[in-house]
Structures are given as C-alpha cells and as structure tokens.
From TrEMBL:
Protein name per its UniProtKB record: Type 1 glutamine amidotransferase
Entries under InterPro entries matching the protein: Class_I_gatase-like, ThuA-like
ThuA-like domain residues: 36-208
Keywords carried by this UniProt record: Glutamine amidotransferase
SUPFAM superfamilies in the cross-refs: Class I glutamine amidotransferase-like (SSF52317)
Organism this protein belongs to: Paenibacillus tundrae
Length: 212
C-alpha cells in the first residue's frame, strides 16, 4: 500500500509556448519521490472538480500564454484550493492568470521579463516553512516581473537583484482553507538540477500539501 500523498503536475507536452513539460516532469517526480506520487498531464480537464479532488497538491507548469482554462476548470481549481487543496505554481505556471478569478487567487500577475541572466536570490522570510534552512543562491533564469493585487495578504519569500533593485521571486499565502506558493525560477530543466532550488520546491510542495 502506497501511503504517499498525491500531486498533480499540469503542463504542456504537445504545444508549449516556451516551456515544455518534458524533462521537468521527471525532475519534479524525483524531487517528491519520497513523500508524494506525481501524476503528469497536459489535460486541463484534470482541473474539473471531480478529477482534482483526489490530489493533495496541484503543481502548475502550464505554458499557455494566450489561452484560458474554461469556466468549469476555473471553478474546479478555485473550489479545490478554497476547500483545502494546495497549489504550487512554478515559473510559467502563472499563465493561469489568464482567468481573472485565478489571477486574484494567485495574488499577482506576470508583466514581462528582461533577458535570461544570472540572478542572485535572497531569502526575505527565513521563518516560513517554505524557506526554512534556505540560504541565498545564484541561478541563470528569466527575471520575471510582477504586479501584485491589493486584496491578497501574500508573504514574499524570495527576492532577486535587478538593476532597479530587489524584485519578488517567490511568495506564499492561504486562500480559504488552501495554501498557495509561487516560485519564479523554472525556465528549463537545468534549473531543476540546482540543489538549493530542489530543496525549495520540496519544501513548497510539503507546505502546500499540508505536511507541515
């Protein structure tokens, strides 16, 4: 009997805009292997209430910058999180923001990014379970920039250094009974091989899935 919790990883194999799920799926499955099984899919209907309910955490690596999930899929994800489900969003997974209801739940929206570059990340919330034991690290990444909504009480966990000063790179908050974490890095497979970032993903998934 497998007593591990269950994660649903959603991304794009067939028609990604920029970030295919191939390769990333294997890394994420390895990161969580000891505590969670990871089911990987590009089928958006997994977000429907009857399909998503069986999972402890949903991980979004969706890469559809022009499309939207359907109203039914949106309702499924909103209901899932507000009733206690976890949502971990990695890098381009923030394309969920194409539905305004999901953008409000995430707490911020992607605006743009300057060119891929080496980025220096610093922890801004050392006492949070997601960042516990994490120290500053450097990664070559796309420096995503965000605009935060005024209604969500979100906690910024990481910042990266830009020419204009520090910018948010990760945040976490509760939504209803559920928990949401966003981690900015994740542009391609090499990012997921970085030891510190793997630990960050692991702890984010643990917190979102209510292990801690």
């Amino acid at each position: 009997m497998d007593h591990r919790k269950k994660a649903l990883l959603l991304g794009d194999y067939t028609h990604p805009d920029w970030h295919p799920l191939q390769g990333v799926d294997a890394e994420i499955s390895r990161i969580f292997h000891d505590i969670m099984t990871v089911q990987c899919s590009e089928n958006r209907n997994m977000l429907l209430q009857e399909n998503i309910t069986g999972f402890d955490v949903c991980i979004s690596y969706m890469d559809d910058w022009k499309g939207k999930v359907s109203p039914q899929q949106t309702a499924g994800l909103l209901s899932y999180v507000s009733n206690g489900g976890g949502l971990l969003i990695l890098h381009n997974g923030i394309t969920l923001q194409n539905r305004y209801e999901l953008k409000q739940m995430i707490g911020a929206k992607f605006l743009q990014h300057p060119p891929y570059a080496p980025l220096e990340f610093t922890v801004t919330a050392e006492s949070h379970p997601v960042t516990e034991g994490i120290t500053g690290f450097t990664l070559e990444e796309e420096p995503y920039q965000f605009e935060f909504g005024s209604f969500s009480e979100t906690k910024v966990l990481l910042e990266y250094q830009s020419e204009e000063g520090p910018k948010p790179a990760a945040w976490a908050h509760r939504y209803g009974l559920g928990r949401i974490v966003y981690l900015m890095p994740g542009h391609h497979v090499p990012t997921f091989a970085h030891e510190t970032y793997r630990k960050l993903i692991f702890q984010a998934g643990k917190w979102a899935a209510r292990y801690v």
